[in-house]
Amino acid sequence: MKGVNNFLITFALLALASTLVSASDPSSLQDFCVALKGTKHAVFVNGKFCKDPKLVTANDFFFSGLAKLENTSNAVGSKVTPVNVDQIPGLNTLGISIARIDYAPNGGLNPPHTHPRGSEILVVSSGTLYVGFVTSNPDNRLFAKVLNTGDAFVFPVGLIHFQVNIGKTNAIAFAGLSSQNPGVITIPNAVFGSNPPINPDVLTKAFKLDKKTVEYLQTQF
Questions:
Q1: Cβ contacts of residue 196 below 8 Å, gap of 6+?
Q2: Alpha carbons 197 and 190: distance in angstroms, whole number
């Protein structure tokens, strides 16, 4: 009887582990699966159609441009350069991607956002950033830190997080993400800039604001 119980416990743990693993990008069952926009000479595995391996070249695994200083002259003072499966087709099924973030001096902001399909590790290449993430309900606990050049910080999958440049010079960071296509939902854009707009009455009650303020915010996104 004891052996049966041990088997059931082991089976339950393995089933749970399998469920947890399947929540992220599926593991690749081959050396690579280069993304292909069309279906000709393709085999669908996961993520995107695969290019015929005989037609794959080194360029399918290559991206150039992460050394370029980006323009941060915009409303938030930051620019994200993503390098995911859309930029490097060879990332298909590999479950990883990267991004460069440029921040303007004195408050350049990567606004509160979330990646629904990937955790993130951020490394500061230059400058000083104040970063943080907020846990889920009901605690909504803030974990925040000031990062300097060479420092790293982790943002767990799905949690709202942000970065802001608190230095007087440009700042640069690189982010590694645990998905070939982690997705991004920028909170203010999604809430006040949805298409079509969310009924102002909903946002008025949710944010405890007057209706005119909500309607004004909806014109800003």
A1: none
A2: 9
